[in-house]
Structure formats: C-alpha cells, structure tokens
Amino acid sequence: MKKAVTVFLVTLLAMTMIVAKGQQESATDLSAPVTIVVWTHDDPNRSVLEKELIAEFTKQNPNVTVDYQTYPSGKMAELLTVAFSAGEGPDVFNQSQSVIRQFVVEGQVSALDPAWLGYRSLSDITSRYIEGSLEAVSLDGDIYGMPLEYTNLCCYLNKRLFREAGLDPEKDYPKTWEEMMDISSKLVKYDGEIIVSRGFDFRYATYYLMEMLPMVEQLGGKLVSDDGKTAVIGDEAWLKFFNYMKEWGPNGRNLGGPTYVSVSKVFDLNDGQVAMSESGLYQESRMRSANPSFYESDDWMVIPYPQWKDSDLRVPCHVSCHYYMVNGNVSMAKQIWGWRLVNFMLSHSEEYLKRVNLVQPTHELFESETFKNMPYSDVFKTDLEHATLTYYSANSSAILEKMKQAVEAVMLQNQDPESVLKNFRRQVQSILDEE
Amino acid sequence: MKKHNSFSIEGQKARWGWFFVAPAILFFCLFSLYPMLNALWNTFFNVKLLSLKKPEFVGLKNYAYVLSSPDFWSSVKATVIFTLSSFIPLTVFSLVFGLIITTRKKGHQLLQMLIYSPAVLSSVVAALIWLLLFDPRGIANSLVNFLMRTPGIDHKWLTEPAKLYMATAMIYFWKYIGYFTIIVATGVAKIPTSVLEAATIDGASVRQTIGRIIMPLLRPTTMMVSIVAMLNCMKSFSTQYLFTQRGAPNAPLNVLTLNIYKTAMRDRYISRACVMSFILFFFMMILTIVRMKTSESKE
Amino acid sequence: MLRDKSFSNRMSNLVINILVAIFLCVILMPILFMFTASFMKSSEIFSMPYRWIPKEFYVKNYFNAVTDYGRNLTFVRTIVNSLIVASATTVLSVIVSAFAGYGLSKFKFRGQQVVFLMIMGRMMIPFEAIMIPMYIIAVRLHLQNTYTGLVLPFVLNTFGIFQMRQYLLSFPDEVLDAGRIDGLGEFGIFSKLVFKNSTPAIATAAILCFRGQWDNLLWPLLLSQKEMMKTIPAYLVKFTEEKYADEGAMMAVAVMASIPIIILFLTLSKYFLGGSAMYSSSKE
C-alpha cells in the first residue's frame, strides 16, 4: 500500500515535470534571433578552428549569432567567478574540472536535456564517452558539461642529450622515480652551483595535484579520505614524497625547482636546456609549430609516467579535463542554443585532434586512425587506461595552493618535512571542514 | 553691519568651496563610498562568491576567524617587513638625491628625466624585467658574484625568504625612487633663491644651509613623500603576484593585498576578504593620522 | 682660505658626481637589459655572463610580439584602447582634482575636513577590496565593454587631489584677492589664475594618472569582455603564461608596451620639468 502510494506520487511528480518542461519549451521561441556569448581560454590554434565551426553553425541556424571571446587562461577562473556573482556570466564557457565543480555544485550551470539535442535519453550522449570522464560534470544523474579535452601527462625525452651523456635512451630511460633522480643528476650541467641545463624537472605552477599527487598515491597515501572528511592520509607516503622533493630542490641534489624557466616550452627548443619534461599529447603540435625540424627528427620520444621502485599501486599521472558548460541562469532559448552549439563544435573531435591535438575522451576518437597515427599516442593511451581525474571539489583550487606551499616549504625554504606535513594536514582539514 | 557683511562673503565663499569639491564628492560616493559600505556590510555576513544561498548574519564571527588565523598574521608580518624595507630607503634616498640633483647645474633636466624613467614603465613590465634579472642564470647572480669574487654561487633571489624581501623591496625602490626624488627636487626648487642667497651671504656652510634652512622648509614635502611611499608599499600587489606566478614561495610574499585577493577570488570568501581589507584600511588610516599629527605639532 | 674652500668644493663635487653616476647606472641598467634582451633568443638571455650586445639581432621577437606569432593584430587595437582610456581618464581626473584641490585649500566651509579625510581614506583602500561591488555597479549601469566603464571609476584620483591641495596651500592668497579686486568671478579666478599657474602640479598629476591607467590590469580585464576592448597589460600578462614562456618575445612586448608612454613622458616632461623651473623663478 505504502509502496503503491509512493509509486503513484513519483509518477505524478514525473508527469507534472514533463508537462512543465513541455510548457516551458513551447513557451521558448527557438526561431527568435539570439546571441550566444562564449568565453574560452586563450589558445590561438583552437580559436581558429572554433571560429570556423561557429561560422558553419550560424550558417545552418541563421537566427543565432555567436560572440566568441578569449581570455588569458590564468585569469579565466576568477573572471568567471566575478561575472557569475554579478549575474553577468557568459552563455557558454569552458574550464577545467577543478574550477567548474563549484559552478556545478552551486547550481549555476544548465543541466542537459537530451531532447534539446534530438536524443531520446541522456545515455545516448553519455555512452559516447569513456568511463569516468563525465564524473566531474555529473550531479544527481544530470550532466552539466561536455568534455573538450582530456589530458594526461607522459614524459617527453630528448634522445640526443641522453646519448651525449653516454646513456642509451631506449634502454636507460627512467622507469622509476629513483631512476629519474639518478639519471637527472647525470644529465644536469652546472656553472658553479647554478643550473645551466636540467635533466628532468617538474611542471610546478598549477600542476601539483595532477603531476605530483600520483607520486603519493603510488605509495598508498591520499589527499582526502574516500568519504571526503579526513585530510592527508598515509604519513609514510607523504613524507617519502616530501623528502624526494627536498632532495630534488636547491638544498638537496639541486636538480631544478619552480623558479627556473618552465620546462615544457624549453624542451621543444632542443637547445640543451632540458632533457626530459612531462606534458600532454598536445605538446606534439606545439613542438611541430615551434621547432618543426626537431619534431620531424628521431631525437625525441615519449615514455610512461614513472612509478616508485617498490610500489604495486599503478597510478599514472592524473587527467585534467576541460569541459564546455552552459549558463543555467539565462533564458531557456539561450540554454538550448548554447547546448546545441557546444554539441556541434565538440562533435568534430577528429578536427580538434588533427589540428590542435586536443583529445576528447570518446570511444570513437580513441579507435580512430587519426589518433593511432599520432606518434606515441599508445603511450598516452596505456597510461590513460589506468588514470583517474585530477582531484576536484568546490575547494580544490584552495587545496592546490596549500599543496604548492607545502612543496615550496620543503624544497625552497628547507623546512622539516614532518612539520610541513603537520601544517599541511591542518590546513587541508580546515578547508574540508568549511563545507 | 560690518560683521554681517563679512559673514555673507564667508557664506558665498563656502558655497563656492562646495561647488569646486562637488564633482569629486559625486565620484567618491558612486565609485568609492558605496562599494566601501557594501564591503563593510559584507563583513557581518557570510558572503561566498557564486553561492546561491542567502548570506546569513554572523555578527563578528568573520573578524574572530581572521584575527585567529595564522595565515592572516603571516601576511601581516610579510606586509610590515616589505613596507619597512622599501619605504625607509625610499624616503631617505629620495631626500638625498632630491637635494643632490638640484645642485647639479649641468644637465639638470636630463638627469631628472633619466632618474624618473623607471617610474614610467608599468609595474607588470618592471616585475617581468626583474624576474629575469633575478633568475638563477640572471644578471643579479653574475653581478654579485663578480663584486664579491664568488664565482658560481646561486644567491637564490627567488627562493630564500630574506632574499625575496630584498628582491621585492629592490624593485619597489627602483621603480619609485625617481618619482619621489622629483617630488623632493620640486620642493627644493620652490624654496626662494633669495633665502638661500641670504644664507650664503651670512656665511652659512652647505651643511648648515641644508640642515637649518632647506630641511625645515621641506617638511611638507618630506611628510608627503613618506606618507605616500608608505601607503603605496602597504598596497603593493602586482610585484608579489607576478613573483608567486613565477614559482617563488608564497609565504614571504603573501602581503595583505595578495591574501585579500586570493581569499576573495580563489577561495571565494568575500566576507573574510572584506574583513582583511578593513583591518588594512584601519592601520593605514591610523598611520596617516599619526604622521599628520606629529608633523603638524612640530610646525 | 678661499682657495682651500674651492678645492674642497671641487672634491665634494667630484664625489657627488661619481655617486650620481653610479646611481644612474643602477637605475638605467634594467631598462637597458629590457631593450637588449628584446633582441635575443630566450636561450641567449640566460647565457652567463650576460652579453650586453646581442649576438645576432633577433628581430623576430618583435614580429612575434606584435602579431601574436603571426596570428592576428590584436596588439595594435589594444594599444589604441589603452591610449584612449588613459588619455580620457587623465583629462577628466585632472579637472576634478584641480577643482577639488582648489576647493579644499582655498575655501573654508563646514564639513571640509570630513571631505578631505574621506577622500584621503579612499587612498588607503586597495582596489582589490572593492572590486566586486564596483563591478556590480558597472554592470547595473551597462558599462561593460565601453570606454566609459573603463574610465569613470578612476576619475577620482585621490592622490592627484592631495597633490593639488598641497601645492595650492602655498599658492599666494594675494594673487586670488587681486583677481577678486579685478572683478574676476570665482570660476574665472580658478581658470585664469589658479589653473594656469599650477602647471607643475597638474603635469605631475596628469603623468601619474596616465601611467596608472596604462598600468591598470585587473579592472579592464574584468570589464572588457570583447577582444577588441582589451588594454595592453592583459596582452602583456599573456606572455608570462607557460605555453608562451618566451622571454625574448616577452621583453619585446614589454618594450612595445612602454614605447607610447615613454614618448608621452618625453613630451610631457618638458612641461613638467620646465614648469617647476618657471614656478620657482617667478616666486622671487
């Protein structure tokens, strides 16, 4: 009896919702002229492609005009935050999983209704994507965004510099973090104690949770417990990581650090400044445009993300995913056209891959010839199969900052790893407790 | 009768005073007073950016939180150290150089322009130049190693806290010394030459002239230079911001403005950011009043 | 005795000249570095010791800077925008500051002290603190992507007001009274006597205001969403990002971004320095 009532009530509720939705849609005039404002981070090659796609889209739908605007990627998150707070957010925008989560949780973005795109059910859309890639934009069974790029980092290696140091890149390439340090100290060159040329170096900046946290997790440590309540689990793992970073920095074996020039760009120049750098598949297109002769040569290769010698937990570099989302506070017509635009652009995934080396996590793309024909794409794919999304939560950018400060404290300010760990735990815990 | 007349002139003058001040007041209300009051209001609520929840009244909780947070106090420390280490040299050297360049008869104009030139560059440009100079392979290391005959030493300008204080203060000094020197020089130029001539005829030495005549006459200028330099240092933001962007450790650079900015924009705690702004504002206000009172009582 | 004095004078002169020369070197070195580095490949910038003369003049940095690596000419538009915004703000703020400085220094009225303290108080509030309420006002007034929106919040230049007031406090009252006796109205006195004779203070305030606007990063970034309405600092910051990370091009952008303001400084500074000289001699 009780069950029957519940079923009845639920059906009733569902029906009123469907009716409401239908009314809403019939009230929405999709043929009226509409302007969609798109904000995206500055990526010159991608904006050329997207402007072409938008031109095609507006040709097909003459009542739609699109105002496509780009922003420096470092400033984008705060601009979005301020704009949304003033009720003036763009209609369509993209950001990485760590930033967009707050928009999802705070209900600022539009949930996708499959009917808008001509699909029967949501699973017709979600089944396009590989498992786990929509996690950061899912909430209570709804989908709030579509992935634009799905990136993990593997290690680019300059074979010429290996050979010059008397190493055989094919055989001697570092498989473990221990080897990474030893080989780097063979490759590094100094003037006095000033580094002139580095072996490997980390990306630092905003890459701590993506590039360094897996090192802790390979040892069984965790940033946040599975229930999301307790911060910084596994002292031994964290201490080993902190000690490694201390060894790496200027007060240890002096192999590099965050104040040196960023490695990923310098690697492409092939001028002896750095032998190894971690980057995504997109680096290949950057290399091709920055230094075509190096790209064509056989002097570079890509190796998997290293593991600790004694760790059984296979944790490759985390994945950073960028999503396109639609503002949930604008008119229904704008939301529908926004989603249609996003869907139209992103359905050209092979173009994105071919022209700007951005990988969308679709089954179709991973099976495509275009993907398979890219140099070393198999290395990236193998790592990807074991990879998970970089930590995200409504407060992940604050936590990222704390991890950055902790690494800086051991590495640059030469502080004691144990006290740094204690302090780090206290800070992350207080951030978790705020929620 | 006479009294009444002067009163009406006073009244008319007062009206004209208001007339001249009116545009400033209008802009002040719209783009300063209102945002400030809004910010003050926020300190008593738990306003979080992006949140759809209605802000709740929390009384003084935000103040209690900020005042008991170690992060805040380390910012206070960073701000105080930075302010002292850049504003004192700025005030002292601008006085010295201001006096010196007014004594140079030849190339006076050219000299002023050259000294002023760093102040023309934008602070983003200045920070970018100095970041390259302080790079481990940059000129700062080479120069110090050359002068101290210590080849190959990395002085860790961007990583050691003490060096970071020096580096950021150096940028500030470099950028603003010319500007303040010119202010002092303008102040010196305002001293009537007849006064100086009279002093020379009376047989006063250079030191006496400077100490007994120029310095007292320069007091308003000195006061202005020191207040403005101090307030500017306390508000410094872009240098520290760009340094942390380039990988320098956050702790020694986390001055209050940077902390406010991060608390508001990254952590989205508007209320806490507003509390810190008001504490900063309060201290700046007190310092200004103290400075004004002391210099007024001496005159 | 007399000879002695001139000798010691000459010695101290020499010492002072040497000090001035060292001081100048320190001041000018970073600027010289910026110019030379803008003609170098990034790897050469970090060669030790630094070569003050580039091996080959790598002009491509400038090409990359202006055309964003051969992609577009947004740079030109951002320079024009910066010029428009900075000039408009300067003109308006100089007028408002001169008005207010005059009103606060040469008139007595009730509440004057309060007005002065309030305006000085504004000087102590960091912009970051009031940015968000300010943005909401601008949005309500529909000022996004407009020059008006970029200009209006900075018309109140508290430092300019402070400077004008300090300057006018020592402006001789007799001149004003003479003007009154000659039958000039209060506004006439201001425009004919005060404004015209305040060139040094006005030029200083103008240069400062212009420089401040040329430098302004956060507000234009927030308010100008359209590519075509952005100003130069946003373009500059782009070159610090990891994917650009090209120190040579970065210095080239820095040079290009500085050239307009340097030119303006050179032309304005004649009034600035000349004006102060004129004032000090006229006072005798």
Topology (elements, then pairings):
The complex is a heterotrimer of chains A (435), B (299) and C (284).
Chain A lengths: L1 H26 L6 E8 L2 H17 L3 E8 L1 H13 L6 E5 H9 L16 H5 L11 E2 L2 E2 L1 E8 L1 E5 H6 L4 H4 L4 H11 L1 E3 L2 E8 L6 H11 L3 E3 L6 E3 L1 H14 L14 H7 L4 E6 L3 H8 L1 H5 L3 E4 L15 E8 L5 H15 L2 H8 L6 H5 L1 H4 L4 H10 L9 H16 L5 H18 L1
Parallel strand pairs in A: 1-2, 1-3, 9-12
Antiparallel strand pairs in A: 3-14, 4-5, 6-14, 7-12, 7-13, 8-9, 10-11
Chain B lengths: L1 H41 L18 H7 L2 H34 L4 H13 L2 H11 L5 H10 L12 H30 L2 H9 L4 H12 L1 H17 L2 H8 L10 H10 L4 H29 L1
Chain C lengths: L1 H36 L4 H4 L14 H8 L6 H33 L5 H12 L3 H14 L6 H5 L6 H12 L3 H9 L4 H10 L3 H17 L2 H6 L8 H7 L8 H36 L2
How would you describe the overall organization of this protein?
The complex is a heterotrimer of chains A (435), B (299) and C (284). Chain A has two domains: 176 residues, 3-Layer(aba) Sandwich (D-Maltodextrin-Binding Protein, domain 2), CATH 3.40.190.10; 203 residues, Periplasmic binding protein-like II (D-Maltodextrin-Binding Protein, domain 2, 3-Layer(aba) Sandwich), CATH 3.40.190.10. Chain A contains 20 helices and 14 strands. In chain A, the strands form four sheets. In chain A, strands 2-1-3-14-6 form a five-stranded mixed β-sheet. A five-stranded mixed β-sheet of chain A has the order 8-9-12-7-13. In chain A, strand 10 and strand 11 form a beta hairpin. Chain B has 299 residues and is an all-alpha fold. In chain B, helix 5 crosses helix 11, helix 8 packs antiparallel against helix 9 and helix 10 runs antiparallel to helix 13. Chain C has 284 residues and is mainly alpha-helical. Chain C folds into two domains: 61 residues, no CATH class; 166 residues, MetI-like (MetI-like fold, Orthogonal Bundle). Chain C has 14 helices and no strands. The C terminus of chain C is likely disordered. The interface between B and C is large, with 98 and 95 residues.
Highest CATH level, the class of chain B = Mainly Alpha
Termini separation of chain B (Å)? 37 Å
Question: How many structural domains does the protein architecture of chain B include?
Answer: 1
Q: What is the CATH domain class of the largest domain in chain C?
A: Mainly Alpha
CATH-defined architecture of the largest domain in chain C: Orthogonal Bundle
Q: What is the N-to-C order of secondary-structure elements of chain B (H for helix, E for strand)? A: HHHHHHHHHHHHH
First-last Cα distance of chain C: 32 Å
Oligomer: heterotrimer
Structural class of chain C: mainly alpha
- Quickly give the CATH architecture of chain B: Orthogonal Bundle
How many helices of chain B? The count is: 13
Radius of gyration of chain B: 24 Å
Strand proportion of chain C: under 5%
Q: Shape of chain B from CA axes?
A: flat
Radius of gyration of chain C (Å) = 24 Å
> What number of structural domains do the residues of chain C give?
2
